[in-house]
Design a protein that fits this description.
The chain is of the alpha/beta class and 292 residues long. The chain has a single domain, classed as Alpha-Beta Barrel (TIM Barrel), CATH 3.20.20. It has a five-stranded parallel sheet. Strands 4-5 form a two-stranded parallel ribbon. Strand 4, helix 6 and strand 5 form a beta-alpha-beta unit. Bound molecules: zinc ion. The site of zinc ion has 5 residues, from strand 1.
């Protein structure tokens, strides 16, 4: 399934906004890594993520995750916060702060819900920096660490920027993350009623167990009569139960990355930057050498 088949806007209109160069960059970004691959995982994992984020993802979605002892990742854009769209009302800051307090992850989805291949590296870096600053100001203690591409469109320039600033980038290309995983183009499967049935769910979970894979899902609203881009509470429940029956942990993207990095002994760029800055502060306080 191509990203176009899953877009929450008219694909023709979106494609028309992408130059040939931008479309090529998106295609290349799927195949060209910009950071060392994650190593082979030592066990299967499942992650459930929500984009934009509709208020029902924060209420019904997060409650179901809590009931299973699972943590989700909710990718937010400052511009969308509290707005009403054709399909749902976007959660407000209080709802996001509440799920953050409960241990769920808030991730970055650009400030303006931008079509990433239309931005050059400088504009993209500025946009995601604005989003991180905005949410740090809105939700005490929150630092956005992981990223999802709006509409699933990526670019090589954006992946390079992310490799210096965020721990991962999530696509909407379906499949299992296994073997040498591109952390800036994580595969993700639609958690949509119209795309995921019991047979596909079982196959994904069984394959994750057999191959030590990481199954990432992405959705939007969680409601009876959900939008074409969301799911019923029953499908989310079935997904959580399918993981539980197989003993697969359901972890946030941050936790999944930490488990992978634990194997690799690597750090997330934002953690590394803050570690260096605190070491620099210590050195400065001690009268040690200054970084150039
Ligand atoms: Zn989105």
């Amino acid at each position: 399934m191509t990203p176009d088949a899953l877009l929450d806007r008219d694909a023709t209109e979106l494609k028309a906004r992408l130059s040939l160069r931008a479309r090529l960059s998106h295609r290349l970004s799927r195949h060209v890594p910009t950071a060392p691959a994650l190593p082979h995982l030592h066990g299967p994992m499942v992650s459930i993520t929500f984009d934009d984020v509709p208020d029902t993802a924060c209420s019904t979605g997060a409650a179901l995750l809590d009931a299973h002892g699972a943590k989700g990742t909710f990718y937010v854009s400052r511009t969308l916060l509290g707005t009403a769209t054709e399909h749902w009302r976007v959660a407000g800051v209080e709802a996001l702060a509440d799920i953050h307090r409960r241990g769920h992850e808030i991730g970055c989805h650009t400030h303006d819900h931008s079509l990433v291949p239309t931005l050059d590296a400088g504009d993209f870096a500025a946009d995601i920096g604005r989003n991180r600053d905005a949410f740090a100001a809105l939700v005490p203690g929150l630092t956005l660490e992981n990223f999802a591409f709006p509409y699933g469109y990526a670019s090589l320039a954006a992946k390079r920027v992310l490799s210096r600033t965020y721990g991962s980038g999530r696509s909407i290309v379906p499949g299992l993350n296994t073997g040498r995983i591109d952390r800036y183009f994580l595969r993700a499967n639609p958690l949509f009623d119209r795309c995921l049935d019991a047979g596909l769910l079982a196959r994904l979970m069984d394959e994750a167990v057999a191959r030590n894979g990481w199954v990432v899902f992405f959705g939007h609203d969680v409601a009876e009569g959900a939008s074409p881009y969301g799911c019923s509470p029953g499908l989310l429940e079935a997904t959580l139960s399918a993981a539980g029956r197989r003993g697969i942990p359901v972890v946030s993207i941050a936790e999944g990355m930490a488990r992978a990095r634990g194997i690799a002994g690597e750090r997330c760029p934002i953690e590394e930057a803050s570690r260096q800055s605190s070491e620099t502060s210590v050195r400065l306080a001690e009268g040690g050498p200054r970084d150039p």
